[in-house]
Amino acid sequence: MRIAILGAGGVGGYNGAVLARAGNEVQLLARGRHLEAIRSGGLQIAELDGGRWVARVAATDDAAALRGAELAVVTVKSYDLDAIGRVAADLARHGATVLPLLNGVEAADRLEQLGVPRQSLLGGLAVISAERTGPGQIVRKSPFNRVVLGELAGGLSERALGVAAVLGAAGIEARASAEMPLELWRKFVFITTMASCCGLARTAIGPVRAAPMGQVLLERATAESVAVGRAMAIGFAADEVTRVLEAVRSMPAPMKPSFLLDVERGGPTELDVLGGAVSRLGRLVGVPTPVHDTAVAAIGAALGLAG
Prior knowledge:
A five-stranded parallel beta sheet has the order 5-2-1-6-7, sandwiched between helices. A four-stranded mixed beta sheet has the order 4-3-10-9. Helices cover 47% and strands 17% of the residues. It is an alpha/beta fold.
């Protein structure tokens, strides 16, 4: 399959590399020194087990060169989505299916606002920890690499099954889901809990869990996100809060969500699409969200953001 990867960071770079290794015609959209390094020496991949390999994958900074892709995978952070949206829209107009693998539950809607036709979009989520550590260098930090994708309106389709098959053949644990809105919200609840609680505490999940009232904080943050989703007709299981808290308890104590890493770096963050989205959507449907409201206010103030 001819595949364009819009965002050659950890997630996009790693999965682009494995897709190219499997024989797909992959092109990465990259810039600057990262682009130069990929062109000159390939993508240098470091695996969790210490193994290393090099992916010889095409890369370009010319968006027009990506036209003709059958699949455009969007893997930028949400704060870069506006800049990449016009590229995705152009590729969709030239026949590509657009698959966003971003945090939050609003990426597809935002891409549609940026010009990607709704019928060209699939819903998608990625579960992997991978980081671009330097120009042309990607480190995988998790034993898992999962992608769930499906139609935004629900139901299975041949194109979703086909894309999942291509990803699976490359070694990615990929699954087409008939319940994509629910899948997106399930991940959203987990990452908003982690982001807001670790962001407020400015520490990894272990100290949050161990702190006085830490378990209460985690439970309340989870319950807020679930309540907002239910008010928006998301069909969560009756024990959804318990299931999310079990997942949070299973995380290694030193684990920091990517949101907190962005906060610590002092650059842009996904505050608006994580805790900010819980607060915003909660107001829309009349569900109180005091934990996420507090996180947005406190973290926003620390970052110098204006309301």
